[in-house]
Amino acid sequence: MRSFRKLAVIAFIGLLALPLFARADGRLDSAIGQAQPVTAAHGMVVAQEALAARIGADILQKGGNAIDAAVAVGFAMAVTYPRAGNIGGGGFMVIHRAGGGGDNDTTIDYRETAPAAITEKSFLDAQGNADPQKSRDSALAIGVPGTVAGLALAEEKYGSGRFTLADLLRPAIALARDGFAVADDTVDSLPHDRPRLLRWPASAQLFLKVDGAPLAPGDRLVQPDLANTLEAIAKDGPRAFYQGPIAQKLAAAIQAAGGVMIVDDLKDYRAIERPPIRGTYRNYDIVSMAPPSSGGIALLEMLNILEGYDLAHETEAQTLFLMIEAMKRAYADRAWFLGDPDVVQVPVARLTSKSYAAQWRATIDPTRATPAADIHSGGVVTPEGRNTTHFSIVDRFGNAVSNTYTLNFSYGVGLVAAGTGVLLNNELDDFAVKPNTPNAYGLLGFKANAPGPGKRPLSSMTPTIVLKDGKPFLVTGSPGGSLIITAVLQIVVDVIDRGLDIAGAVSAPRVHDQWMPDKVFAEPGLADNLITALQTRGDNVVVRHLPTSANSILVTPAGVVGAADPRTRGALAVGY
Ligand code: DON
């Protein structure tokens, strides 16, 4: 067992990161609202921003499939939801295609890569300590954006063929060119993120008014450079983004801000189609994201552990307790084993096997919390913001898409590359910039997730499709950094074991344990008797706002039911 060192330094870093993630809208301690279920006969889109959700539903209604709709929503949110929707970041898309058989499930990995000049030492200071300023708040943190390549690959391989990429980009281009009135979460987040945007003129010019005040409700966000960039992609495909004048402007802006990305890094970027992580939970198939996301493996580990208990007949308190024990163990494995599968060997089969879960289960005392230090050793957590975004789509043909994409922090690193309208990510902080040193989400990592040239940093994004009899049953996922995987776990358990409907599952207060720190975070609104029950078993419960947003769909005999997560303003479920 490793000893736990440098606690003071780590805690200090955590404190520094804290203001970054505090909520902008002052609702820090409020309980959660109730999601309103939306039922439709044919298809459904649930996304964090309403204009984009409607664009997706429109594509479905015009005969498009879930992949067409996802591509249109993905590009639209790069315009309408700038804090997380993006073409300057990356993400993952999990796809189920109708027609039965496991081969019909696939994933697109469009995670950012580290520029070729990034090394294990890139994010250290002169003393060899992790320097969060470098990995979170500087242009060094910018990974090569994957979204354009990922969405284009998804469309090329799995689109219906009824639409060209240009067709699917058209609504996004119009919104960027003509502008739209900012509202909801964009209005809520801009005041908080203003100082980071203010540092770069091209960013300030877009998101702040001439007097430096953030755009307010009803102000129009007009993005002509972004419209031109999207138009170039519509005309010439992803090559227009990764080569030529746009790539040159991106690299120039990043270098001018102190980064190391060069045009060749952009030219070399590839989105990768990967087999999903597959497993079973009771009578359901779980299809989720493989490394470089930790989400699918950790989710399956937890579900495999929990499958050994009859949760449908446990008390709610005991179910929560057992989920928390499973969480600690899966997050410990996450820290040890997971990283970019193209660079390190990830023991996927072992970690997701039922026998491995049985070994972990044998270490769980059903009456007493296992101290995190008895599982491994660790770090600290800081609260995260909702800086990633998830959407779920089901079409009338039986296809489904679960997509989570991100700039990492809210508005990424805050830098818009001049002349492109592209807001850039700070994804490289998801590396373990130094072994056993927490990232902004308090997640620890070791060698497997060390920074390196061309490497993809480990993610927690967990876009997931649950199948019943080979057909989409539940489509879910969430933003929230380290909170994502446990949010998805709870949606799955709430629906399958606790029999909640999707609105109930999405709205239910959630808990989170990520092994280190040795704490259980509980959302305001979790019943006092449940908190007491966890404390009695030895859990160290801290009530805290947990910013996730699990926009989800459940396919029921009565229709396709969407639930927009009530935790963030502006999310919409729209079906037809
Ligand atoms: O890939 C990851 O795990 C993180 N970069 C996601 C960040 C995130 O979800 C932030 N906000 N909610």
What features would you describe in this structure?
There is one protein chain. The chain is α+β, with helices and mostly antiparallel strands. The chain has 19 helices and 21 strands. The protein has helices spanning 7-21, 50-61, 66-80, 132-137, 147-158, 165-178, 184-198, 201-207, 224-236, 239-242, 245-256, 263-267, 295-306, 316-337, 348-351, 354-362, 483-496, 502-507, 528-536, and strands spanning 38-40, 44-47, 90-96, 105-110, 180-181, 220-221, 272-274, 277-281, 284-288, 388-394, 400-406, 416-417, 422-423, 464-468, 471-476, 511-512, 520-522, 541-543, 552-556, 559-563, 572-575. The strands form five sheets. The chain has a seven-stranded antiparallel beta sheet with strand order 1-20-19-15-14-9-8. Strands 7-4-3-11-10-2-21 form a seven-stranded antiparallel beta sheet. Strand 10 (388-394) and strand 11 (400-406) form a beta hairpin. Helix 2 (50-61) runs antiparallel to helix 3 (66-80). The longest helix is centred in the middle third of the chain and has 22 residues, at 316-337. The radius of gyration is 22 Å and the shape is globular. It starts with 6 loop residues before the first helix and ends with a strand. The model is unreliable at 1-30 and 377-384 (pLDDT under 50). The structure holds 6-diazenyl-5-OXO-L-norleucine. 6-diazenyl-5-OXO-L-norleucine binds next to loops.
